[in-house]
Q: What sequence folds into this?
């Protein structure tokens, strides 16, 4: 959701910016632009559409000489995608240039004030208001002026700012939107995310909330909102730049699906010590775990679906009541949090605006929050009281796969740990659960290696109009995720239902040839599911079943069957999701959709 890259140093800025923006393409965008100082003035070039249009327009940056510049990929919020609304935005005499990710919520009153003062606006964006407001307050001291403006802006922002009369500096600031800065022997960088700068440096600083940075070619200065200079420790990025490249796979999504066995291992193994689960980062003693009366899980999208699975597993194994909320609902519904409540926020990016707000809501009420987060140093990782990282590495495809799988593992680990401490499972069962957890990576690999079967099946359904996913219990949770995977990347309408709900309305949508994907991995619900499948099949549905090995008689109710290897009933989601991910992927490929960057979507949703 909008990408920012800036550079100041010894290299030509434009190629560095283009290269960095390309690494941020996964965030989603509909136009791009950059501004480079050529020694006399700031030149701006913008282009609607893919980044390669901007690349062609500037001959890979050659037509924009200069060693200081900022660039942006825009995901439209205020105003349609066009050249005027694209960033960078400037003040009236083009001496102040701004790129912005986020939303300035009070931009209308600010704009009205500036209009009264004689300012004209060319775009419909909130960002142009920031550029003009900087102009209004500018007193020759960029830092002072930026702070004055930031104190007047409400909403969220990651900003890159250049002043033509201070050509040796770039300024950056953030509140609510992600931003990092990096330093190499050649210069200093700003970026929305680490992959944008990894080719040049591994030394990065995560810009904290309401921090301002002044970048020079060889130095960076960090300030609080009170203009106090602060010292910050750099982070050395350990993961390889290759981890953010396609490594020969056709799409990032395919590569990331194939990384799932490793992801699951990496999330699991550091927490298994001498065949016991130790989650040090939880920061809870056994007594404190025993005092947990209720768990609230907050998250969005697929992370929410992982939370729904978590509810079944935590309640089933540890017998702790769990409420799962969409973070966008939790933050506004005045939730009831009572003594003994524990709040868990799940997020891949660690930047999702609603999840961050839900955390703040819980903390404001005095409750500690555990973040299950993938991106190290992200906002949620910093704001949560404790962080359990999912070690999935960078996830680039908008449709999450490996991070989701890692979230499931983190939640299983918590459930088994809590169950052990609360003695809701005995030692024998505990050992069996650990054994089954450790088997998951190989079992996932096995399913991935049978991808042709799914590919073959998916090819038959490329023209589908509607697809329904049904399941009961924990299989309902995976139906939600299977349905989202399909619809977000193939644009086929799809819904997930708790199978018992079909007769309460949905079954009237079933007609000849409608595809129904039925997930049935729970022994105690197996017969009920078979009945539901027969019901839809009788009405003309084509039924795809995902079930456990050995359930041969499923064929009497299904037209096509995918078997998953045997595991504990609480862990089946980790296996059942693999064919569903592959199904969504192959349909999307078959339809010629942009698999990694589906329309209208962004990788991290940093605005409401
Ligand atoms: O970064 P987060 O995990 O907080 O993101 C939450 C959702 O936006 C995300 O899971 C989204 O639903 C995925 N694109 C689905 O594949």
A:
């Amino acid at each position: 959701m909008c990408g920012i890259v800036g550079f100041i140093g010894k290299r030509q800025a434009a190629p560095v910016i283009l290269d960095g923006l390309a690494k941020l393409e996964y965030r989603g965008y509909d136009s791009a632009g950059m501004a480079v100082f050529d020694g006399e003035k700031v030149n701006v070039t913008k282009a609607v559409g893919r980044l390669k249009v901007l690349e062609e327009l500037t001959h890979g940056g050659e037509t924009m000489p200069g060693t200081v510049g900022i660039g942006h990929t825009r995901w439209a919020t205020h105003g349609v995608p066009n050249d005027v609304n694209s960033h960078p935005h400037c003040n009236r005499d083009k001496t102040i240039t701004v790129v912005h990710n986020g939303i300035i919520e009070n931009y209308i009153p600010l704009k009205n004030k500036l209009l009264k003062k004689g300012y004209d606006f060319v775009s419909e964006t909130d960002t142009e208001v920031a550029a003009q407001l900087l102009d209004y307050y500018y007193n020759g001291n960029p830092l002072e002026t930026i702070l004055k403006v930031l104190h007047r802006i409400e909403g969220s922002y990651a900003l890159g700012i250049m002043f033509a009369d201070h050509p040796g500096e770039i300024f950056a600031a953030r509140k609510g939107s992600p931003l990092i800065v990096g330093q190499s022997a050649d210069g200093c960088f700003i970026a929305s995310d680490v992959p944008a700068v990894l080719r040049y440096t591994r030394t990065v600083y995560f810009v904290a909330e309401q921090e301002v940075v002044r970048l020079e070619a060889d130095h960076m200065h960090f300030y609080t909102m009170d203009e106090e200079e602060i010292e910050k420790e750099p982070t050395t990025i350990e993961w390889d730049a290759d981890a953010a490249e396609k490594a020969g796979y056709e799409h990032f999504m395919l590569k990331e699906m194939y990384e799932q066995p490793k992801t699951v291992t990496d999330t699991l193994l550091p927490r298994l010590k001498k065949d016991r689960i130790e989650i040090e980062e939880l920061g809870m003693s056994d007594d404190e775990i025993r005092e947990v009366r209720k768990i609230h899980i907050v998250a969005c999208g697929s992370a929410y679906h992982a939370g729904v699975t978590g509810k079944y597993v935590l309640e089933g194994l540890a017998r702790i009541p769990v409420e799962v909320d969409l973070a966008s609902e939790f933050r506004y519904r005045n939730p009831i949090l009572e003594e003994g409540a524990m709040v868990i926020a799940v997020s891949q990016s660690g930047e999702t605006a609603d999840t961050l707000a839900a955390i703040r809501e819980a903390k404001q009420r005095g409750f500690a929050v555990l973040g299950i987060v993938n991106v190290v140093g992200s906002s949620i990782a910093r704001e949560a009281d404790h962080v359990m990282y999912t070690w999935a590495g960078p996830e680039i495809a908008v449709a999450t796969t490996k991070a989701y799988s890692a979230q499931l593992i983190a939640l299983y680990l918590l459930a088994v740990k809590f169950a052990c401490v609360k003695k809701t499972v005995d030692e024998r069962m505990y050992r069996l659960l650990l054994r089954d957890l450790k088997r998951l990576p190989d079992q996932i690999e096995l399913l991935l290696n049978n991808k042709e079967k799914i590919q073959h099946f998916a090819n038959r359904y490329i023209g589908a109009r509607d697809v329904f996913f049904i399941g009961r219990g924990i299989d309902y949770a995976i139906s939600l995720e299977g349905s989202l995977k399909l619809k977000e990347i193939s644009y086929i309408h799809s819904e997930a239902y708790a199978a018992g709900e079909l007769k309460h309305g949905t079954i009237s949508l079933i007609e000849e040839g409608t595809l129904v994907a039925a997930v049935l991995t729970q022994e105690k619900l197996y017969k009920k599911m078979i009945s539901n499948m027969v019901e839809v099949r009788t009405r003309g549905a084509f039924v795809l079943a995902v079930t456990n090995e050995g359930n041969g008689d499923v064929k009497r109710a299904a037209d096509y069957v995918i078997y998953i290897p045997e595991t504990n009933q609480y862990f089946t989601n980790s296996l059942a999701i693999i064919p569903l991910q592959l199904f969504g992927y192959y349909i999307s490929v078959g339809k010629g959709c942009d698999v990694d960057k589906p329309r209208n979507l962004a990788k991290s949703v940093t605005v409401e």
